[in-house]
Design goal:
The chain is an alpha/beta fold and 466 residues long. Helix content is 34%, strand content 18%. InterPro entries: DEAD/DEAH_box_helicase_dom, Helicase_ATP-bd, P-loop_NTPase, RecG/Mfd.
Length: 466
């Protein structure tokens, strides 16, 4: 199976799932215009233009003959009437496509014409490769600074070989029988919807597929809401939490909890004291106190005899959560699981389990079934990983700053209850300073002083390879 790599950041776990995404728009590359459109109308156009001049430069402004080391450049083209157009190019990805054309060649391009210094100009337009000419091309929505639209588009193209599996996923997620799908959409085969979405013969066909896909999505959410609301009571889901004990645990906070935190704790405890397995989202921005909010119900559940696990996306965060839990509730043992145990035996029943996804294999090895599972930063976990931790009676709380799209839609339609933390329990005092290169040693000394005093510091770089 194709390695989806960074696409996991969009919530995908397998390549066929990429076919369930909906393009944000379509571009028709059937018939280019050969005369420059009116400038400054705020609309991109598909044009066939003739290349007459080209120049590229490095960062110092030195002219180059090859694309290696190129930083900026320009090309000049003419339309069918001989009107000139100046095109600015910044960066190697924008320059490289133009280097394969000889002067006098026709270049198919897509971009917006604007007026600059009295002349028609374009900046970094898209050069249409021959494989796209004569087709309608979907444009996808990536995730800024993480997954580009181009990467997602390439994955969709690769996923077309697995369209049958994607069709089954579509029916599964929509909770629809194939006959119900036919009646709802008017299409004989769900695969036709996916083909029309990603390889339409016309813009109109693609836009109609988007309309149908959105209608299917809404119906899928309605079906899931109904399934969630009609779930049966499950033996073992109810945890006999003492509310007086919850109040005592809250008093241990080294700060005054916010009203949002107190309300969220109450909502979570109410879910846990019901015979229906909890499936709730705890949403709040950084510093709104999500950790303290879910630690109170976790501690109360353990004291009520429940088996509790808190799963973090990384080893450092797991160890921080374990330390915080131990400092707040000294009488509750904490079992930390952040990697393979090897031959060493870990007693997961001896306390609240805090760890990474290594908890999954450890629990399976010991045959431990948890009564309450809390997933911190839910978007880092796949659906398959979460399912491995959950039994029919398990209560599940997802803590996140940004819910994954599928969950957002369920919340908006009332399918999943959500507790939102909007305010911060401790006021934030943010001071910004700009440090020049000459003051780097002073900055280093200050950071070391903060660390020696027990504080924390973070360095953020613009690129991972720095």
């Amino acid at each position: 199976m194709h390695d989806i790599g960074r696409l996991t950041r969009l919530g995908f776990t397998t390549l066929p799932e990429c076919l369930l995404t909906v393009p944000k728009e379509y571009r028709d590359f059937h018939e280019p215009i050969e005369v420059l459109p009116l400038p400054d109308i705020g609309q991109a156009s598909y044009m066939a233009l003739t290349l007459i001049e080209r120049a590229i430069f490095d960062r110092s402004g030195v002219a180059l003959q090859e694309v290696k080391g190129a930083f900026r450049g320009y090309v000049k083209v003419v339309d069918g009437r001989g009107q000139r157009l100046h095109i600015n190019l910044i960066g190697k990805p924008s320059i490289e496509p133009w280097m394969g054309y000889d002067f006098g060649a026709t270049v198919h391009t897509y971009g917006e014409v604007v007026t600059f210094e009295g002349r028609p100009t374009m900046s970094n337009p898209m050069v249409i490769p021959p494989a796209m000419i004569g087709r309608v091309m979907p444009v996808y929505q990536g995730k800024q600074n993480q997954v580009s639209a181009e990467v997602l588009g390439e994955a969709v193209t690769a996923a077309m070989a697995h369209i049958n599996e994607a069709t089954c996923l579509l029916l599964e997620q929509a909770l629809m029988h194939e006959d119900d799908f036919r009646k709802f959409t008017g299409l004989n085969d769900p695969a036709d919807l996916l083909r029309n979405l990603h390889s339409p013969l016309s813009v109109r066909e693609g836009e109609e597929a988007v309309r149908i896909a959105k209608a299917v999505c809404i119906q899928a959410l309605v079906n899931r809401v109904e399934a969630h609301r009609n779930r049966p009571a499950v033996k073992g889901a109810l945890l006999r939490i003492d509310r007086d004990q919850v109040a005592d645990l809250i008093k241990r906070a080294p700060f005054k909890p916010s009203a949002d935190q107190l309300q969220a704790i109450d909502e979570i405890v109410s879910d846990l004291r019901s015979p229906y397995p909890m499936q709730r989202i705890l949403s709040g921005d950084v510093s709104t106190g999500k950790s303290f909010t879910f630690m109170i119900p976790a501690a109360a559940s353990y004291l009520a005899g429940a088996r509790v696990a808190i799963i973090a996306p990384g080893q450092i965060l797991a160890q921080q959560l374990a330390a915080e839990l131990s400092s707040l509730f000294y009488e509750i043992p904490v079992v930390t699981v952040v990697g393979p145990a090897g031959k060493a035996k870990i007693d997961l029943s001896s306390g609240i389990v805090v760890g990474t996804t290594a908890v999954i294999s450890a629990a399976s090895k010991e045959g431990i079934v948890f009564d309450l599972v809390i997933a911190d930063e839910q978007q880092r976990f796949s659906v398959a990983q979460r399912k491995k931790l959950i039994a029919p009676h398990t209560n599940f709380l997802e803590s996140t700053a940004t819910a994954i799209p599928r969950t957002v839609a369920l919340v908006q339609l009332g399918g999943l209850p959500i507790s939102i933390l909007r305010s911060t329990p401790v006021p934030r005092d943010i001071v910004t300073r700009i440090i020049t290169h000459n003051a780097r040693q002073k900055l280093h000394d200050l950071v070391m002083q903060i660390i020696k005093q027990g504080g924390q510091a973070a360095f953020v770089y613009p690129r991972g390879e720095w």
